[in-house]
């Protein structure tokens, strides 16, 4: 899952080396915490959150077919 998120986010940002993803597993869910450079946060979120929503749609669709747990994606700088 981390590879999927990286492959979606890295082409969008100016500082791809600062893209990090941390997975936090709980009983019935997995939270992926995406951290990007502070100058890239707007590119990842997009106007009115459209880019973030598109990234989440792809990630959630993939997770639905591969994971038995609920998946969440948090974007931070």
UniProtKB/TrEMBL annotation:
Main localization of the protein described in the UniProt heading: cytoplasm
TM regions (residue ranges): none
Keywords attached to this entry: Cell shape, Cell wall biogenesis/degradation, Chaperone, Cytoplasm, RNA-binding
Compartment(s) of residence: Cytoplasm
Domain of life: Bacteria
Pfam families xrefs: KH_KhpA-B (PF13083)
Similarity remark: Belongs to the KhpA RNA-binding protein family.
PANTHER family noted in UniProt: RNA-BINDING PROTEIN KHPA (PTHR34654:SF1), UPF0109 PROTEIN SCO5592 (PTHR34654)
Subunit structure: Forms a complex with KhpB.
Role of this protein: A probable RNA chaperone. Forms a complex with KhpB which binds to cellular RNA and controls its expression. Plays a role in peptidoglycan (PG) homeostasis and cell length regulation.
Stated name of the protein: RNA-binding protein KhpA
Organism from which the protein derives: Pallidibacillus pasinlerensis
Underlying gene: khpA
